[in-house]
Give the backbone structure.
Amino acid sequence: MKEHAQGETRKVVTPSRKPVAFSIAGFDPSSGAGVTADIKVFAAHDLYGMACITALTVQSTLGVRRVEPVAAETIRETLACLREDVLPAGVKIGMLATAEAVSEVTRFLSEAGIDPQRVVLDPVIRSSSGKELLNPEGVDRLRLELLPHVGWVTPNIDELAVLTGIGTSDKEVIPMAAARLQVLANAGANPKLHVLVTGGHLHRPDDFLLTPDGKSLWLKGERVETQSTHGTGCAFSSALLCSLIEGRVAEEAAAEAKAYVTAALQAAYPVGRGKGPMHHLFVRRSG
Amino acid sequence: MKEHAQGETRKVVTPSRKPVAFSIAGFDPSSGAGVTADIKVFAAHDLYGMACITALTVQSTLGVRRVEPVAAETIRETLACLREDVLPAGVKIGMLATAEAVSEVTRFLSEAGIDPQRVVLDPVIRSSSGKELLNPEGVDRLRLELLPHVGWVTPNIDELAVLTGIGTSDKEVIPMAAARLQVLANAGANPKLHVLVTGGHLHRPDDFLLTPDGKSLWLKGERVETQSTHGTGCAFSSALLCSLIEGRVAEEAAAEAKAYVTAALQAAYPVGRGKGPMHHLFVRRSG
């Protein structure tokens, strides 16, 4: 990069602003998941990412060792501070850790006036290594308080079961459980909820989309043979948000997010001794 | 990205591993500085970034509002957890916030067996908006405990003055103050310290390099007319680490890091109402 001329003052023409996306999620030191991964996903879609950390985790590719929630007051201050500075084009919500964090994020969404159709909730409840990432009171508030404020929710089959009380080890039951989740949101006065159930844990990783007007669709998935599966759920929900910000309709946005994750899995290179990260930045759409 | 074939299991050839760089620094929600910015700088140089957060900050492009240090125990656990998983090719150290954090990082460096010539210390003491980012006891420990374990230190002129007691508003005094910092490190038994004084606050933003064998060099800088100067010091030290990991000799590494920052400033687009971020990912060297 030495060809850049040095020694002279140079005026730079300012390009147009890029949309800013917020990630409200946990911090993963290995950067396969959480806010740092989300910021990479946003960058891959040519969006600028800002973030509010809800919890520090001690983890590596070998699993989550400990979770340290951030104080609700700090979450509140962080979101207020960012909101005074920029208006986000959309918000992705990941791990929240505590009931208090769920309430802070709910308050933020209702006060900030962000279009719910640009809010994607990944209802993280448990890590793939089995660690609790949202306590039971938090799950209740997520369902009762937060769900009414989001346009999209992206549970995996385990999270869908916890949220609806309907076990979904059988693929045939997923549509019914997704509809049940919509009913729960409707009771909270949100008639506009998209439910997108991620099937990464299914034998064949198909996703199921249910739109607010009752259309449903299976998105056929491709199993990628790789160890680098850490944070696929995080990346999927963030990529979905990016596609929504770009103005895609529901089915297109879901398909694009799925294609992004598949490609990032295929592009992954080994990192660490356990489940490594995907290659979030395998592509960037612009300079 | 819809051209990716779906529906079939596909074997992926695993590319070779990329080097992993660690950032030990603060968290900036606006992502112009701190660990999320560092991870973007690493990615721009085709390195994979992992991070240990030393302090949460509440800040935006308008300045630092509050600093919340992370417990020393969490820092220790995080670094131990990462170290069991991967061997970093290099470490960048930024904001440390507390004396306890300085000691934890010192312990990590001495136990992990990382080549000091692949450790870059950006001795962050105060934010450009005037907030204290390392307490006085921390500054003492940084000088006495940490400095002997690093191969590179990148103070700006204010930090150089605090570390050496030699005021450096006069450009002519910088070489003497840099030499004084080497003497202090030598007393701590580190005869291999490179001092790279960043001149971003000078009328003409030249940097000064002093190598362990006493060679010195002014790197001529270019003033870029932009509001997007948030986190330039963070990005410079991280880019320097990247060039060192790539095997550059001292003068080349310093020049490359300076060229990276200049180009990232030139490529910046407006974000927020204050001092926005550089465009860290204006280039990526590979997929």
